Amino acid sequence: MPVIEIERVQKACGPVVAVDDVSLTVEPGEILGVLGPDGAGRTTLVECVTGLRTPDAGSVRVLGLHPRTERDRVRERVGVQLQSGALPATIKVREALALYASFHARRADIPELIAALDRAELPGRYFGRTEAAAVALALIGNPEVAVLDELTTGLDPQARRETWQFIERVRPRRDCPGRSRAGSCP
């Protein structure tokens, strides 16, 4: 079963058609990047997939669920890092991770997640807007699907490479369906 199914989705934001007849399928273990210039509708599409917006036409299914009408079930199984999310500058990453972990029944082990990020210093830092901290928050619920919006925007080439290496380490491999995160196959 595909993890994401988008069929003929359309969404207008006022007079502007942000998403026009988009269809795509994401299979388990796949990484999908949606490319386009500013204003192309990428974030609007992400918001439709995560249930933050309702498409004007078409359908979206995530893990076989409707993101708006089955919002709670989707929220438990999907991790999201949004482009415009932010936390107070005075909160440390370890505090944010503990807070977000408390929202989930299937929470990730914080030390294991930090190790997978390869950022030992991260828990003691103030949250700010670091991509590693935002990704950690998206993954703290041990999601089956992670939706990461504008993940590498503003990062230098080295930081972009490190971010993509991290994504490769934490995603399940197709040849190892029992594997949930970084590590070897059972």
Give the topology, please:
Blueprint: E1 4-13, E2 16-26, H1 42-49, E3 57-62, H2 71-77, E4 78-81, H3 93-101, H4 110-117, H5 131-139, E5 145-148, H6 157-170
Parallel strand pairs: 4-5
Antiparallel strand pairs: 1-2, 1-3
Structural features, described:
The protein has 186 residues and is α+β, with helices and mostly antiparallel strands. It folds into two domains: 1-69, Rossmann fold (3-Layer(aba) Sandwich), CATH 3.40.50.300; 77-174, P-loop containing nucleotide triphosphate hydrolases (Rossmann fold), CATH 3.40.50.300. It is built from six helices and five strands. It has a three-stranded antiparallel β-sheet, covered by helices on one side. Strand 1 (4-13) and strand 2 form a beta hairpin. The chain is globular, with a radius of gyration of 17 Å. The two termini are 22 Å apart. The model is unreliable at 173-186 (pLDDT under 50).
Mean pLDDT: 82
CATH topology of the largest domain: Rossmann fold
Number of helices: 6
Approximate shape: globular
User: Nearest-angstrom radius of gyration?
Assistant: 17 Å
Structural class: alpha+beta
Question: How many β-strand stretches?
Answer: 5
CATH architecture of the largest domain: 3-Layer(aba) Sandwich
Q: Tell me the β content.
A: 15-25%
Unreliable runs? 173-186
Please give the domain count. Answer: 2
Assign the CATH class of the largest domain. Alpha Beta
Helix content: 25-40%
Largest sheet: 3 strands, antiparallel
Span between termini? 22 Å
CATH superfamily of the largest domain: P-loop containing nucleotide triphosphate hydrolases
Strand order of the largest sheet: 2-1-3
The SSE string, one letter per element, is EEHEHEHHHEH
